[in-house]
Amino acid sequence: MKLDYKKIFAIVFTSVLVSFVYNDFNPKGLKLIRDERVLNWGSDSLTTFPIINSFKVDSNLIVNKPKIDSAKTEIKKDVVELFKEPKAIKIDFAYKLFKQGVKFIDARPVEEFTEGHIKGAVNIPFYGSENYENILNKISKDVILVTYCSGEDCDLSILLGDELFNKGYKKVYVFFGGWNDWLSKGYPTGKK
Amino acid sequence: MKFLSNKYLLFIIRIVIAFIFIYAGAEKISNPDDFALSISNYRLLPISLLNFFAITLPWIEIISGILLLLGISVKENSAIILTMLSVFTIAIIISLFRGLSIDCGCFGKGTQIGLLKLGENLLMITGSFLLMFFGSDYFGLKQKN
Q: Taking a C-beta distance cutoff of 8 angstroms, is the pair A93, A42 a contact?
């Protein structure tokens, strides 16, 4: 077996060259270097929380002012439309959501989750097993979810947030400060 | 050994692998962003490198597939295909160990990674290894007389 390495290089080089030219002319062409995921920030306080905002707008628009319950159904639809991608939030808003009983999803590995996590959080390790379908099946797609990982430097929460969003969860927040911020504030934690 | 170097067997392997790679490349070229997402699902490459591979890999597949089909530089093209298949297979094995149930990204959308995929790849690796080792000039543009 004798291989001509020059030929191999020539074939690969030509292919790469052709691919660049094609990509340049292709309307669906991609940027050579993909941009890092940029987080979109959500509102920091409950007063400007999308649910509240849309509620105000809705109740003004409705002439006969129906019962709050039916208005809330409208709000749900609105919130779904408001989220075009997961939104980043900071500790204060995350805590407000926590107090409202919003579900927190821990994207860190199982070992770190076992050592300590936000009280009541569910562990879905992003780089771990994907056998979490059972957990997800129990969570309605309409609920608000908050993903988090260790702190500001980790991207597991963003990646998991995107994945959940693509799976149909349209109200996903990414808690930017994560576990470190939560711990430093002394908010409720749990161990498993 | 004699059976493995049979020119008709090598010819069939050559044609099958060539068509598979041409088809796989064409599918990916038609939707580069989908392919970039498929690569990202494996969680092995940094985000900044995803597009580079999504742009270039399909063309390497198509061009080496066409050259293989035509019987031009069969050994060299088989070596390229063997390298690609080995990398893909390692990526699939890592993902299976991690327990990821992701789209393979092999022929556009819709094929999940799994043991079946692994088996297919190992068969193709064997085939391309045979081609790299013995070559195949039967019914090719560069047929020896």
A: yes
pLDDT in tens, B19-41: 999 999 999 998 888 888 788 87
Contact A27, B30 (CB under 8 A): no
Contact (CB, 8 A) for A124 and A151: no
Q: State phi, psi for B42 to the nearest 5 degrees.
A: -70, -20
Give Cα B13 to chain centroid, integer Å. 13
Pairwise CB contact (< 8 Å): B99 & A31: no
Residue showing tokens 């020059």 = A6
Q: pLDDT tens string for chain A (192 positions)?
A: 789 999 999 999 999 999 999 999 999 899 998 877 777 777 654 434 443 333 333 333 333 444 444 444 444 444 545 678 888 999 999 999 999 999 999 988 888 899 999 999 999 887 665 567 677 778 888 889 999 998 877 778 888 888 888 888 888 999 988 999 999 999 999 987
Instruction: Name the CATH superfamily housing domain A40-190.
Output: Rhodanese-like domain (3.40.250.10)
Classify strands A189-190 and A117-118 as parallel, antiparallel or unpaired: antiparallel
Contact yes or no for B79 and A3 at CB 8 A: yes
ipTM greater than cut 0.90: yes
On chain B, the residues whose CB falls within 8 A of the CB of A36 are 47-48
- Please give the Cα distance from A34 to A15 (Å, whole number): 20
Query: What is the helix (H) or strand (E) element at residue A88, kind and residue range?
Result: strand A87-89
A30 has a chain B CB within 8 A of its CB: yes
Instruction: Using only the alpha carbons of chain A, give its radius of gyration.
Output: 22
Residue A51 makes CB contacts below 8 A (sequence gap 6+) with A75, A79
